[in-house]
Design a protein that fits this description.
Keywords: Cytoplasm, Dioxygenase, Fatty acid biosynthesis, Fatty acid metabolism, Iron, Lipid biosynthesis, Lipid metabolism, Metal-binding, Oxidoreductase, Oxylipin biosynthesis. The chain is an alpha+beta fold. It has helices at about 90-105, 190-195, 205-210, 225-230, 240-250, 250-255, 285-295, 315, 325-330, 340-345, 355-365, 415-460, 465-470, 475-485, 495-500, 505-515, 525-530, 550-575, 580, 585-600, 615-635, 640-645, 665-670, 685-710, and strands spanning about 5-10, 15-20, 30-35, 40-50, 55-65, 75-80, 120, 150-155, 300, 345-350, 370-380, 385-395, 405-410, 535, 545. Helices cover about 35% and strands about 10% of the residues. The strands form five sheets. The chain has a five-stranded antiparallel β-sheet with strand order 9-10-11-12-13.
């Protein structure tokens, strides 16, 4: 009778390895124990046995760091690549299966060390640093109804000296030593990727030194040209700044940050959004397109009532109904009325009003000055979205119960109204960028998936089919989350410095975790909830998109259903009916712990799947894989192509919209040749017609200048310095552009 059995490997490094194998009445090797008698750890990729009687080759995938035997209470165990449900596990392996899970759970005590393999839960009590003073304290996230949050991996560091409910923090220079189970740590290449991304973290220690670079307006760019220098040559950094960097930034980061010659620290690759046309990002079409194909394409929804209403409690926040009227938008609806376009499902909204308004007064008490926003869009015949109006709102100065103070901006082509419209789009960008970073990206992918990783490793054996299904989608997440808590989302960290929510960033994300619903993370459910799709059995996948050319949704649905088909096929191999789901002890423990501990602040929610059927298992695993893979890719990897050029995706605003009569407002009011500061400057129709003809001629002349500047034969227009002649371009963008013909001698 063939039996599974255990064999032993004793490792002496450097030197030969020996295997103990009892050849009498031999069965099928199902696992091996290994003991490292060397003084340092090694990485065990795999073990392969060849010429095994009746079996040929048997593989043992390991992919684990093995530390010296003195670091473990038991020898390490590795199983073959066979898959077993708990009840089907050979008796000779069952003890090792159970003991391995016990080792991974730990005992919940003490500070965890680098060789530990423990997966355990903790609240987010490590973001603040009260030992540095009250200004560095932040709320504990998780474990309360006021600040609910997913759980993170426990490190077991000692409590803070000034307040034991907080965990003490590591010194910045020791950030890379933060505990995660050793096999969750980055490989070298992934570490390099993270360090490049974590470049932002140096803002914490370099902010005063960088002020000397931007002399006119510290902490701000003086013009678009200053921004472009980041990509077209870089900004030289004073030696004093370099010294501060070397004194405060870990060596590994320095290797990623500095060029080999040590010069031009502030130089970045050219973002794709300006690679072809440096000003196309300013167009209304691109502004709207990025809501469908940019880095936050998960927010736009169908507008089903007009004016847009609020779900905020009117007893607390007063009347928060939108002040956008039909007079603001009906002229841009291709001849339709508002009622018609709502019925035809052609009116959409990017709504950052209700989410932001409860926190806006606090946020604007910091250096940030911004608005809650609503952006209305119309689906045109050509399939693109046209922005119709932007509403920017502030809390009422006399108190929240008095409602909001709002301004409405509509598209304008020229004059100060155009400048105000561009500003309004900028404020929408600020809010959307912050929401993207904190909610769409951090909370809805990184933070919510970590409890699944912990529960999977604690409750599902490596022999379990669902462990094998999900494990590839957990790689590196705990490590990047831990490093994020250390240098990005912590008090005073890079995110607080670079996102408009400032010190309220993480508690703001906690407020929006209250709205997180696991089943709605499924892409089809998300699209239906936002009203951008309807059920239609005649369409692929049974869904009809109301915006046919919606790249995120179109491509996402293909990926979603491919994942679901794979999960369904895989699960059907191991689970033949619903009863097998109910009887799987590890699976039931996994799902119970995930709900009650990992997402414990939501354990009473009725929407959690019961995990009693194959369909519930398939949908659950599909959602997990979707979040960890495709959803994260869609909202992460476009950050630099779109957001690497700050004017396209601004993250902070430090002033409100200028009011008439202020110097800031006057700066907006530059009127160029062929323009007037008001459309009604005369009632004479012939004069208006003649002026329109003049304006068109000026525009044509500018287009001709651009063509000549691109003509390689006209070498004097470009020259060896590659600087096109633009001084007589009639129009100009904001800032010091070296172009534009003002109507008057104004400076």
């Amino acid at each position: 009778m063939i039996k599974n059995f255990i064999f032993y490997a004793i490792v002496f490094l450097p030197g030969s390895n020996t295997f103990d194998w009892d050849n009498e009445e031999i069965g099928t090797p199902g696992a091996f124990l290994i003991r490292n008698n060397h003084h340092s750890e090694f990485y065990l990729k795999s073990l392969t046995l060849e010429d095994v009687p009746s079996h040929g080759v048997i593989h043992f995938p390991c992919n684990s760091w093995v530390y010296p035997a003195s670091k473990y209470q038991n020898d390490r165990v590795f199983f073959s690549n066979k898959t077993y449900l708990p009840a089907e596990t050979p008796i000779s392996l069952l003890k090792y299966r159970e003991e391995e899970l016990e080792n991974l759970r730990g005992d919940g005590k003490g500070q965890l060390q680098e060789w530990d393999r423990v997966y355990d839960y903790e609240v987010y009590n490590d973001l603040g640093n009260p030992d540095k003073g009250p200004q560095h304290a932040r709320p504990v996230l998780g474990g309360s109804t006021e600040y609910p949050y997913p759980r993170r991996g426990r490190t077991g560091r000692a409590p803070a000296k000034s307040d034991p409910k907080y965990e003490s923090r590591l010194n910045l220079a020791l950030s890379l030593n933060i505990y995660v189970p050793r096999d969750e740590r980055f490989g070298h290449l992934k570490l390099a990727d993270f360090l490049s991304y974590a470049l932002k973290s140096i803002v914490q220690v370099l902010k005063p030194e960088f002020e000397s670079i931007f002399d006119k307006t510290p902490n701000e760019f003086d013009s678009f040209e200053d921004v472009l220098k980041l990509y077209e040559g870089g900004l030289e950094v004073p030696e004093g700044v370099v010294k501060v960097i070397r004194d405060n930034v870990p060596l590994e980061m320095l290797k990623e940050i500095f060029r080999t010659d040590g010069e031009r620290f502030l130089k970045f690759p050219l973002p794709q959004v300006i690679a072809v046309d440096k000003f196309a990002w300013r167009t209304d079409e691109e502004f709207a397109r990025e809501m469908l194909a940019g880095i936050n394409p998960v927010m736009i929804r169908s507008l089903e009532e007009f004016p847009p209403a609020s779900k905020l409690d009117p007893k607390v926040y007063g009347d928060q109904t939108s002040t956008i009227t039909k007079e603001h938008i009906e002229s841009n609806l291709e001849g339709h009325t508002i009622n018609e376009v709502i019925i035809e499902r052609k009116l959409f909204i990017l709504d950052h009003h209700d989410a932001l308004m409860p926190y806006l007064r606090r946020i604007n008490s910091t250096s940030t000055k911004t608005y809650a926003s609503r952006t209305l869009l119309f689906l045109q015949k050509n399939g693109t979205l046209k922005p119709l109006a932007i509403e920017l709102s502030l809390p009422h100065p006399e108190g929240d119960q008095h409602g909001a103070i709002s301004k409405v901006f509509v598209p304008e082509e020229k004059g100060v109204e155009n400048s105000l419209w561009q500003l309004a789009k900028g404020y929408v960008g600020v809010v959307d960028s912050g929401y993207h970073q904190l909610i769409s990206h951090w909370l809805h992918t990184h933070a919510v998936i970590e409890p699944f990783i912990i529960a999977t490793n604690r409750q599902l054996s490596v022999l379990h089919p669902i462990y094998k299904l999900l494990h590839p989608h957990y790689r590196d997440t705990m490590n990047i989350n831990a490093l994020g808590r250390q240098i990005l989302i912590n008090a005073g960290g890079a995110l607080e410095v670079t996102v408009f929510t400032s010190k309220y960033s993480m508690e703001f994300s906690s407020m929006l975790y209250k709205d997180w619903v696991f089943p709605e993370q499924a892409l089809p459910q998300d699209l239906l909830k936002r009203g951008v799709a309807v059920k239609d059995s005649s369409c692929p996948h049974g869904l009809k998109l109301l915006i046919e050319d919606y790249p995120f949704a179109v491509d996402g649905l293909e990926i979603w259903f491919a994942i679901k088909t794979w999960v369904q096929d895989y699960c059907s191999v191991y689970y033949k009916d619903d009863e097998s789901i109910k009887k799987d002890a590890e699976l039931q423990s996994w799902w119970k712990e995930l709900r009650e501990k990992g997402h414990g602040d939501k354990k009473e929610e009725i929407w959690w799947p019961k995990m009693q059927t194959r369909e519930e298992l398939i949908e659950t695993c599909t959602i997990i894989i979707w979040i960890a893979s495709a959803l994260h890719a869609a909202i992460n990897f476009g950050q630099y192509p779109y957001g690497g050029y700050p004017p396209n995706r601004p993250a902070i605003s430090s002033k409100l919209v200028p009011e008439k009569g202020t110097p800031e407002y006057d700066e907006l009011d530059e009127v160029y040749l062929g323009q007037r500061d008001t459309e009604n400057w005369t009632s004479d129709a012939e004069a208006l017609e003649a002026f329109a003809k003049f304006g068109k001629k000026i525009e044509d002349i500018e287009e001709g200048m651009k063509r000549m500047n691109n003509d390689e034969k006209l070498r004097n227009r470009y020259g060896p310095v590659k600087m096109p002649y633009t001084l007589l371009y009639p129009s100009s963008e904001g800032g010091l552009t070296g172009r534009g013909i003002p109507n008057s001698v104004s400076i």
